[in-house]
Amino acid sequence: MTRRAFFFTSESVSEGHPDKVCDRISDAVVDAYIGADPYARVAVETLVTTNRIVLAGEVRGPATITPAHIEEIARACVRDIGYEQDGFHWKNAAVEIYIHAQSADIAMGVDARGNKDEGAGDQGIMFGYACRETDVYMPAPIHYAHNILRSLADARHSGAEPGLYPDAKSQVTLEYVDGKPVRAHTVVVSTQHAADLDQEEIREIVRPHVENVLPDDWICDQTRFLVNPTGRFVIGGPDGDAGVTGRKIIVDTYGGAAPHGGGAFSGKDPTKVDRSAAYAARHLAKNVVAAGLADRCTIQLAYAIGVAEPLAVYIDTHGTGEVDDDRLSATLSEMVDLTPRGIRERLGLNRPIYARTAAYGHFGRAPEPDGGFSWERLDLIDDLKHAFA
Fold it and tell me: What is the DSSP string of 83-103?
């Protein structure tokens, strides 16, 4: 039974957060390989700290992607994010690259050969989720936390707010009544800034971005609004804290409102089901809710390395379903090919579409003409309605 009243909190981090700098670089490397060879294999991690960028991992792809090319990619990512600081500068940071060929043992299990279809790139469990709290079928706290930071980033990139620097965090706590969000209880924003700005000046810079993102009647006298609670945030980014690829998986997904299997997305080509199957599960869950079959839907997929078919497909509509969950699971399994190859082909994942996913969430984004965010398409609604007519 849905709890009638409660508070729920989600956080987001900006593209300049150290971990997100790493996600961006790792995904830009994925894009470079897939752009040169759609079937390249990539698993690359990045670490950043004070004026240092380190990449490590394994690949199988064209020799045209050289270490020098990868270094250029890393520097371009840092430049685009906006880091030109003494402690972290796109031009001056040392770049180290430790990338080697993909393990032959992994390739043997994953590659298609003879009568064997392409297997999953690893074992694991992946979750997808959708709900009616927002028009993009995402939980409201993470949706608004992302949008506050995107608004601030847009102002920074445009030059409208030159006192803002790349590193930032947001946190949104909403009050729910009868299971629906009704107002903002607390909004926290921490943003890196120029040294000559004080806390109150930063607060007034941030305020309109919060007010413009949240629904009009959600901010009231009781709403707590905290900006840079420590009082100062001048030293930030990788100079203030080391970053590593894949450390913001809850930010990347549903802000804690739904389960997560544990695997990160960034730096991985789409044969890695950590990424592709999570996208597929979101695609199915979103279409289920959009088709009116449930108000909330959680889908779990499970895989074994080297095995094509999912080991299990689990669906929970949390008591909001218009049809039986088991029947819905069976119907979706028949309707959509959930093998790694089937997912890649249905969603068109063998394209250089990944760097754009590295900040502000992989879900709740608009599908793009070149295939970006294809897992957000609502292309199963008619089939689902027909199946359960």
Answer: -EETTEETTTSEEEEEEEEPP
Write out 250-281 in H/E/C secondary structure: HHHCCCCCCCCCCCCCCCECCCCHHHHHHHHH
Catalytic residues: 17, 19-20, 45, 58, 169, 233, 241-242, 247-248, 268, 272, 274
The model's pTM: 0.95
Query: What is the C-alpha to C-alpha distance for residues 190 and 145, in angstroms, rounded to an integer?
Result: 12
Render the burial of 75-104: b for 16+ CB within 10 Å, e for the rest.
bebbeebbbebebbebeebebebebeebee
CB contact set of 343 (below 8 Å; sequence gap of 6+): 270, 273, 276, 277, 279, 280, 337, 349
Q: Which residues of 228-256 are buried (b: 16+ CB within 10 A; e: fewer)?
A: beeeebebbbbbbeebbbbbbbbbbbbbb
CB contact burial 23-46 (16+ within 10 A = b; e otherwise): bbbbbbbbbbbbeeeeebbbbbbb
pLDDT digits (tens, 9 = 90+) for 228-254: 999 999 999 999 999 999 999 999 999
Instruction: Return the higher-pLDDT residue of 324 and 121.
Output: 324
Query: Using 50, 70 and 90 to split pLDDT, how confident is the model at 111?
Result: low
At residue 149 the predicted structure's pLDDT band, cuts being 50, 70 and 90, is very high
DSSP letter at 305 equals: B
The pLDDT value given to residue 107: 54
pLDDT digits (tens, 9 = 90+) for 135-144: 999 999 999 9
Helices (H), 82-158: 104-110, 140-158
| DSSP class of 80 | H
Name 14's Cβ contacts closer than 8 Å, sequence gap at least 6.
20, 149, 152, 153, 166, 167, 168, 169, 191, 359
Non-local (6+) Cβ contacts of 104 within 8 A are none
